[in-house]
Design goal:
This protein is mostly helical. It has 15 helices and no strands.
């Protein structure tokens, strides 16, 4: 867990150079959160994680940044750390539904099913609605091979029209080896926002994974029309031309 000591809210300032400290003081917490969201929407999860952390340094009452920080750890496959930080956040905000959901997702990924059910039940009992709690409930049912997972995912999509919701559901289906469902959700993301390079990239990666080389190239090319320096889209084009597999390299995008 050493690489995540930087996430501590009471981070020792001597770890920053004087110039970094001055620069950071000029950027408020809303700017850090905005940068986190921008990075997340490009699949740059490591960068998003650090920006969420910076936002919390400025204001640790931002529940959305606590949730985002845990979600990024999960997407980076750092499940024990994700669970740890969800518990830390719940100590501060013991009635926040999405924090319970984030803890449940971290537990699911560690095969701690009983605890995950308890956490998601607590999330669902809180007032209001959110796409994330339904997404996690769907993942829990999917992990347990229960047929009602689709209802939960569809509920999440009804609650929030953001294209990022089907993208992250697509990644869940990929995690559990369901490429057909992953591609269907990726296509929905592109339908919701055809200007998102990351949505096009995820669609391309799903197509490539299923052996659909020509559609994968088209999707990757469209991604590059929207963002010329999207490196993994460039790599995907090379891979499809060479007949190779790309999906296992997706993590390298998230670590940038």
């Amino acid at each position: 867990m050493a690489r995540f000591t930087k996430l501590e809210i009471d981070r020792n300032e001597e770890h920053h150079s004087h110039a970094e400290t001055i620069a950071a003081s000029r950027v408020d917490d809303t700017t850090w959160q905005k940068r986190a969201e921008e990075s997340r929407r490009l699949g740059a999860y490591e960068g998003a994680l650090q920006y969420y952390s910076r936002a919390l340094e400025s204001d640790k009452t931002q529940v959305a940044c606590w949730v985002g920080q845990v979600q990024m750890l999960i997407l980076l496959e750092e499940y024990p750390e994700a669970e740890l930080w969800s518990r830390k956040a719940l100590e501060l905000f013991p009635a926040e539904a999405d924090l319970f959901a984030s803890r449940a997702q971290a537990l699911i990924r560690q095969s701690k099913t009983r605890d995950a059910f308890g956490a998601i039940d607590q999330a669902m009992q809180q007032p209001g609605q959110s796409a994330y709690r339904w997404t996690v409930r769907g993942e829990l049912l999917l992990a347990g091979r229960q047929p009602t997972d689709r209802h939960c995912f569809d509920k999440a999509l009804q609650i929030d029209s953001d294209w990022l919701v089907p993208v992250e559901i697509s990644l869940i289906h990929t995690h559990y080896g369901q490429p057909n469902n992953a591609l269907a959700r990726a296509r929905l993301a592109v339908e919701r926002d055809a200007t998102s390079p990351y949505a096009w990239y995820i669609q391309a990666a799903c197509q490539q994974r299923m052996g659909m080389a020509v559609p994968a190239r088209r999707s990757a090319q469209h991604c590059l029309e929207l963002k010329q320096d999207f490196r993994l889209a460039q790599d995907l084009l090379m891979e499809t031309e060479q007949g190779g597999s790309l999906w296992q390299r997706l993590r390298s995008l998230w670590s940038n």
